[in-house]
Amino acid sequence: MVAVLTADLINSTSYEKTFLKEVVNVLKTEFDSISKEQDALFTIFRGDSLQGVVKHPEDALHIALRLKAAVLKVQDPNQKKSNMPVADVRIAIGIGEADYNVKAISESNGEAFHYSGHTLDAMKAENKKLSLKTGNENINSEFKVSLKFLDSLTDKWSIASAEVVYYLLKGMKEQQIADLLKRSQAAINLRKKAAGWEEVQLLLHRFNQVFSK
């Protein structure tokens, strides 16, 4: 059993070329970092789409949210006065059996790949940005609701909020983030609360609980 993440950048054709390149480079950096920390493999295809295999399904939502936060925190140099994200990513998580080639993930097969790919295809029409598909309809129903709530939360994140969530997902403490961003711990705490970090943690815990069984 593995988790497959299939994703695409939302409205990427509207990005300036230099900005798109920056966002893709951010994703590549995240892929390298996550692959070193966990049993996960990623690839980019078609220039604005990505696919990854996560060997421990319970970590899939955490990784998906980290990728999303990494993208949301990228500042468009042409819109420096705005604190709202320009880039965003749509991610479908499929969990099931899979046969995959570590050298050619996008050419791999299995139910986890089918779940993820087909779900991503349907997400645009359903106005979803994060979705899950498994072979268990009870699990699908539960996370259909909770991930829709998560969408409503992440849609409100500012670049500053996404930045703080990103570092929290990397395991950093408030003071460490404050030192890194040259802000007070109180300011970081406010951003954390504004991002709904407590609620995010509860959902991540529930996801881990369900798929660790």
TrEMBL record:
InterPro entries: Nucleotide_cyclase. This is SatD family (SatD). It comes from Planktosalinus lacus. The lineage of its organism: Bacteria, Pseudomonadati, Bacteroidota, Flavobacteriia, Flavobacteriales.
